[in-house]
Amino acid sequence: MSPLLNFFNDWFTQLVLRRFHDLRHTHATIMLEIGENAKLVSERLGHSKVSITLDT
């Protein structure tokens, strides 16, 4: 594979992964905004402490 193709492949992969992770944060934010329990949101995200969820 050419270096240019490798560059764009890596760039696209990182873009997709970054955008997917943004959806995770958006999901958590929406849940908190509609009044979902912070402990439940934290558990859904796999955080060990509620403070991690609320600080992020």
Q: Which structural traits does this protein have?
A:
0% strand, mainly alpha, 3 helices, single chain, elongated
What can you tell me about this protein's structure?
With 56 residues, the chain is mainly alpha-helical. The chain has three helices and no strands. The mean pLDDT is 88.
Number of discrete helical segments: 3
* Topology pattern, helix = H, strand = E: HHH
- Mass-distribution shape: elongated
- Structural class designation: mainly alpha
Strand content: under 5%
Specify the helix fraction band: over 70%
* Sheet with the most strands, sense and barrel status: none
Number of extended strands: 0
> Radius of gyration in whole Å, from Cα?
16 Å
Uncertain runs: none
Quote the average pLDDT: 88
Span between termini: 39 Å
Helices, strands, pairings?
Layout: H1 3-33, H2 38-45, H3 50-55
Helix pairs in contact: 1-2
Outline of the structure:
The protein is mainly α. The chain is 80% helix and 0% strand.
